[in-house]
Design brief:
mainly alpha, about 5% strand
Length: about 180
């Protein structure tokens, strides 16, 4: 009975591993195709990190470096360097906070707003064309499941999730890797 259970587990594990490998292969292809598209958006004259910061500022309105860093899941120093480049390009402005001079508020300039319009138009046109290649019901499902996948990925990348996995991996090493959850 034990051998049959182990054989079934190994068979299921193999099927699952094949599905995961196929999924990962599809993700790699997706990354390559997205990279091709992102290369075309570089014609806007800014890099990908700056593009993400601009579009996030468009959504947030007026915020702080800390607020932008949190929203983009970056550390404050990386967000600050990105904003410095955008300020130098005249796309973002810094304003001293009236309540606390230690903080500055950041927001888009008129040129920054215009750059967001260009970026959004390029990307909206591209993704609209892509989604038109998918039938209506599949399109709705694709959008729904892509959002679910993105949320799951964000959760897996969260510090709490990573810490729990590190603790689980440590337990597996202590037990000699015999725990069924360690495979």
């Amino acid at each position: 009975m034990l051998y049959a259970t182990v054989a079934l587990y190994n068979q299921f594990g193999s099927i699952l591993k094949n599905k995961i490998r196929s999924f990962r292969k599809t993700l790699r292809k997706f990354e390559r195709e997205i990279e091709k598209h992102l290369e075309s958006t570089r014609s806007c004259g800014i890099g990908l990190a700056q593009c993400h910061a601009l579009l996030e500022l468009e959504d947030l309105g007026i915020t702080t470096i800390g607020g932008l860093a949190s929203s983009l899941n970056l550390d404050k120093s990386t967000a600050s360097r990105t904003v410095d480049g955008l300020v130098a390009a005249g796309l973002v402005q810094r304003t001293a906070d009236t309540g606390d001079r230690r903080f500055s508020r950041i927001s888009l300039t008129r040129d920054g707003i215009e750059k967001c319009i260009i970026i959004n138009r390029m990307n909206d046109d591209f993704f609209e064309g892509m989604l038109e290649l998918v039938s209506g019901t599949e399109r709705d499902g694709l959008i729904k499941y892509f959002m679910i996948l993105t949320d799951a990925l964000a959760e897996c990348n969260s510090p709490d999730f990573r810490a729990a996995n590190i603790r689980a991996e440590s337990r597996c090493r202590i037990k000699g890797g015999q725990n069924e959850h360690c495979r």
